[in-house]
Amino acid sequence: MNEFNDGKQQDHADEVDATRNFSETLIPVDANALTDEEQQAVDALPSGNSLLIVRRGPNKGARFLLDADLVTIGRHPNADIFLDDVTVSRKHSEISRSGAVFSIKDLTSLNGTYFEGNRVESAELFNGAEVQVGKYHFTYYSSKKDA
Predict the structure, then answer these.
(1) By the 8 A CB rule, do 112 and 106 touch?
(2) Residue 118: which H helix or E strand, with range?
(3) Of the candidates 95, 37, 53, 49, which has an alpha carbon nearest to the alpha carbon of residue 70?
(4) Residue 137, class by beta-carbon neighbours within 10 Å (0-12 exposed, 13-18 middle, 19+ buried)?
């Protein structure tokens, strides 16, 4: 006899529903929704610039302006985007700009660079794209003036 169900046979479907309902409350549906401040930052982006916002991982909520033709990402202190975590290689990846188009390129990092959940060598970024470098999960936002 199970002390938690007072001797009554509990239906397995009830357990599954209870687990599903519990897990759905752990992660908010709008986990990637922009705050008012983040939306203002995206709206204010000048033409030719973009923004990476950390969505999950260390420094959640941090914003990185992409306003140069080449932006380096890594654990090296001289990286343009310095990510201080062992899951990030010293020279992990780079983002390049050609006109108003930004692309990400992995620099043969140990843990790889992920774009939309897939490990990639390189990919062209688009508004709302998900990028992962080590434990850091970013969302990419482009200037509305370039749309």
Answers:
(1) yes
(2) strand 118-120
(3) 95
(4) middle
DSSP 22-42: HHHHHS-TTTTPPPHHHHHHH
118 phi, psi to nearest 5 deg: -115, 135
Q: Which residues does residue 104 pair with via DSSP β-bridges, in sequence order?
A: 95, 123
Token readout for 47 is: 């033409």
- For residues 68 and 81, the answer to whether their CB atoms sit within 8 Å is no
Q: Residue 46 and residue 146: Cα distance in Å, rounded?
A: 9
Sequence length of the chain is: 147
Could you read off the pLDDT of 86-143 as tens digits, one per residue? Answer: 999 999 999 999 999 999 999 999 999 999 999 999 999 999 999 999 999 999 999 9
